[in-house]
Write a structure and sequence with these properties.
binds adenosine-5'-diphosphate, 6 helices, Rossmann fold, three-stranded parallel sheet, globular, alpha/beta
Length: 163
């Protein structure tokens, strides 16, 4: 069985991420959507909230597991028994960072490899950061994220909290 890890912050998951998962499922038998815990990065949703939100959004996909990890991605991959990572590419700006990360990971583990999927024309401008910013100022993000996420963003922004 070929499985791959799709790591990211997913704060929150967007339609851009969902499209990558759906296309990734055509390449792999199973995908693990893995939330990277980063205590130094301020997030809007806690890791537990993100896990719940992603599970809801991907409920219909039996071949997807949602998890979270600490530390190095290569170590997490080893624990999960795979060397394959899936990432999405939106723009040239993504490329530079992804190129460095893919090579650093391969340096740490020569068996490691990253598969990149180019974003679709409907999703190239969507990022979790912009979704958070627009929602914070009361903008409508319902066409950019799954329905459950939109609802939670409105609630979160009303409360004005973050973790
Ligand atoms: P963001 O940069 O939106 O905070 P993440 O850290 O959660 O995203 O990203 C996880 C992966 O998903 C990265 O490879 C990122 O490039 C990819 N990704 C994020 N948004 C999109 C999108 N709209 N289309 C394609 N890939 C995306």
């Amino acid at each position: 069985m070929r499985h791959a890890i799709y790591p990211g912050s997913f704060d929150p998951i967007t339609n851009g991420h969902l499209a990558i998962v759906e296309r990734g499922l055509r390449l792999f038998d199973k995908l693990i959507v893995a939330i990277a815990r980063n205590p130094r990065k301020q997030s809007l949703f806690s890791v537990e909230e993100r896990k719940e939100i992603i599970s809801e959004a991907l409920d219909q996909h039996a071949r997807v597991e949602v998890d979270a990890f600490d530390g190095l991605l290569v170590d997490y991959c080893k624990r999960r028994g795979t060397h394959m990572v899936l990432r999405g590419l939106r723009a040239v700006s993504d490329f530079e960072y992804e190129f460095q990360m893919a090579n650093m990971n391969r340096k740490l583990d020569p068996g490691f490899d990253t598969v990149f999927l180019m974003t679709g024309e409907d999703h190239f401008y969507i990022s979790s950061q912009f979704v958070r910013e627009v929602a914070t100022f009361g903008g409508d993000v319902s066409c950019l994220v799954p329905p459950g996420v939109s609802k939670r963003l409105i609630e979160k922004c009303k409360k004005g909290d973050g973790t």
